[in-house]
Write a structure and sequence with these properties.
By secondary structure, the protein is mostly helical. It is built from 6 helices and no strands. The chain is rod-shaped.
């Protein structure tokens, strides 16, 4: 009777493993939304726990069959053969579910990391847009233009590492057919805004550089003229002091 019960337990275990394999490993999943992906991750975590909890039952079966084999070798031998099949299938099921759970967790981590990089770069774009707007109505002063140019250039020196990560993470998920529509839309919007703002910022940078150069040249010319007028003023003052007649002065002084 004990052999019959153990045989029944082995059969039930095989049936349970077949159902678990069909439910967790053979279904085709399409992750078109973050909610679907997150639910799949949680489901696989539960599946992993469920499968691992059966380890106690498998161990009890193994111990009971070994004990029966010592008492009734003929029955125990037949059951031991079936047990080996169950043990192999169980180990394979555990490994496959662990693997799929790990893969889904990595995919979810990849998605979260992508969102974090997008948030960082969006914050940088917002800052860049603000700096560009600040250069729109500058007072016609050398210091103001110089400060605006340095401020804009400091933002433009932002490294490209984050954008590289965004591109690679996004492409990895899209290639796997995971959240591809959502990610493609996000990347398209981000890239379009990045290109637009980058070109506008570089154009404004060039304009400010040219404006700054013109203002410096003008300041230099005014300084030279002011020095020349100062010299002339001192010369004329000396002429007046010495009571020199205008017609006795050099032509330029007249």
């Amino acid at each position: 009777e004990k052999a019959v019960n153990l045989k029944k337990d082995l059969a039930e275990m095989q049936e349970w493993m077949a159902q678990a394999e069909e439910e967790y490993l053979e279904k085709d999943f399409e992750y078109k939304s973050p909610e679907e992906l997150e639910n799949a991750v949680e489901e696989m975590k539960r599946a992993k726990e469920d499968v691992l909890q059966k380890e106690v039952r498998v161990k009890i079966l193994k111990d009971n069959i070994k004990m029966l084999a010592t008492k009734v070798p003929s029955s125990g031998q037949d059951l031991a053969t079936e047990l080996n099949v169950v043990l192999e299938n169980y180990q394979l099921l555990c490994n496959r579910i662990r693997g799929k759970c790990h893969t889904l967790e990595e995919v979810w981590s990849c998605w979260i990391e992508l969102l974090q990089y997008l948030d960082l770069e969006t914050a940088w774009l917002n800052n860049l847009e603000e700096r560009v707007q600040m250069t729109g109505n500058l007072p016609d002063k050398l210091d103001a233009v110089n400060d605006a140019l340095e401020s804009l250039e400091s933002v433009l020196r932002h490294p490209a590492d984050n954008r590289t990560q965004i591109r690679e993470l996004g492409q990895t998920l899209i290639d796997g057919g995971i959240l591809d529509d959502i990610i493609s839309e996000k990347l398209e919007a981000f890239n379009a805004r990045y290109e637009e703002l980058s070109h506008l910022a570089v154009s404004r940078q060039i304009t400010l550089e040219q404006q700054l150069q013109t203002m410096r040249e003008t300041d230099h010319m005014l300084q030279v003229l002011q020095e020349s007028l100062g010299d002339l003023d001192r010369q004329l003052t000396s002429y007046l002091t010495d009571r020199i007649d205008a017609f006795q002065m050099p032509q330029e002084a007249q």
